[in-house]
Write a structure and sequence with these properties.
globular, alpha+beta, 2 domains, eight-stranded antiparallel β-sheet, D-amino Acid Aminotransferase, Chain A, domain 2, D-amino Acid Aminotransferase, Chain A, domain 1, ten-stranded mixed β-sheet, about 25% helix, single chain
Length: about 350
């Protein structure tokens, strides 16, 4: 398969312009049906548009891979499609049917296949994003919406390779509140994590662990990743309760841990003390995949998780997930979606 002449060996996790992107349009009360590929570029909008003034927008994050079988595949795109439906409904954006979402994504990937890194050199990050375009200075749902699907070749999320993270537990900020939009992939959710994340990084930490808004004895998640804690043979992760994003990687890890590794998986309240005393702690997400957490600091005290390194179960989960995504092993869950 012929590829673009990019420096695949030094690919960063950033936006690289590609050939094209998908643009679809829909009016409130109608169904998404229109759309086509257009040249990759800027989007023109009014300074009074609903998305700029009121944050009425949601997005998805997913990847395409050049697999070991020398073909292009997606990973569980049906889950992204379903989450997009839920997110759009929560923000009063016309809900998309799975078929329309998958068409927009697959057409974009097909037209930019030569930008997908060769096997073993990275992946293609895909960003479907939909938002309100109607100019308005009063609060309310937009009348007109667009969907953009763009993509970019990416290398590892971590420039120097995957290493155990050092995270900060802070009660200074909350990421989301119960009955809010924490369980939707809304654009505003991520802006809420910018200041806490920046402050933590300026102090030498990699990121923040957010506590549950209704009870700060329990942890919830990171700014853009779900959390897991392993104690013995029990793997625990905070339950989905309206303020936690239902991560695709989160669900995949739960299935792999339970059905392939034979671990007991519990979705429930994860107490801060349980996290700090766990044998292994890791985070999951499309970008970070499965990444170990070696140290956690709370109230000025640094806690080492296990031996502070890459736990054996964390390493196995990461390797198994990536091996399924790149078709290096059989996919027992039928998660792979060939293009």
């Amino acid at each position: 398969m012929k590829k673009q002449k990019l420096d695949w060996e030094n690919l960063e996790f950033k936006v690289y312009p590609t050939r094209s992107m998908w643009k679809g349009e829909c009016e409130i009360g109608k169904t998404w049906s229109k759309g086509e590929l257009i040249t990759y570029g800027t989007v023109e909008m009014s300074p009074a548009s609903s998305v700029l003034n009121y944050g009425q927008g949601v997005f998805e994050g997913m990847k395409a891979y050049h697999s070991a079988k020398d073909r292009i595949v997606l990973f569980r795109p049906d889950r992204n499609a379903n989450r997009m439906v839920q997110s759009t409904q929560r923000l009063c954006i016309p809900a998309m049917k799975e078929g329309y979402f998958l068409k927009a994504v697959t057409e974009t990937v097909k037209d930019n296949m030569d930008y997908i890194p060769p096997y073993g050199k990275g992946s293609m990050y895909i960003r479907p994003i939909t938002f309100g375009m109607t100019p308005s200075i009063s609060v309310g749902p937009a009348l007109d919406y667009i969907l953009i699907v763009f993509c970019s070749p990416v290398g590892s999320y971590f420039k120097s390779g995957v290493k155990p993270l050092h995270l900060l537990i802070s009660s200074k900020f909350h990421r989301a509140a119960p009955k809010g939009i924490g369980n939707a992939k809304a654009i505003g959710n991520y802006s809420a994590s910018l200041l806490p994340g920046s402050e933590a990084k300026s102090q030498g930490y990699n990121e923040v662990i957010y506590l549950k808004a209704s009870n700060e004895d329990y942890v919830e998640e990171m700014g853009a990743a779900n959390l897991f804690a392993l104690s013995g043979k029990t793997l625990k992760t905070p339950r989905l309760g309206g303020s936690i994003l239902p991560g695709v990687t989160r669900d995949s890890v739960i299935r792999i841990a339970s059905e392939m590794l034979g671990l007991q998986v519990e979705e429930g309240d994860l107490h801060v003390d349980e996290l700090l005393s766990a044998d292994e702690v890791f985070c999951t997400g499309t970008a970070v995949v499965v990444t170990p957490i070696g140290k956690v600091t709370k109230d000025g005290k640094e806690h080492s998780i296990g031996n502070g390194g890459f736990g054996a179960v964390t390493k196995t989960l990461r390797k198994t997930l990536l091996s399924i995504q790149y078709e290096e092993i059989d996919d027992p869950f039928n998660w792979i979606f060939p293009i």
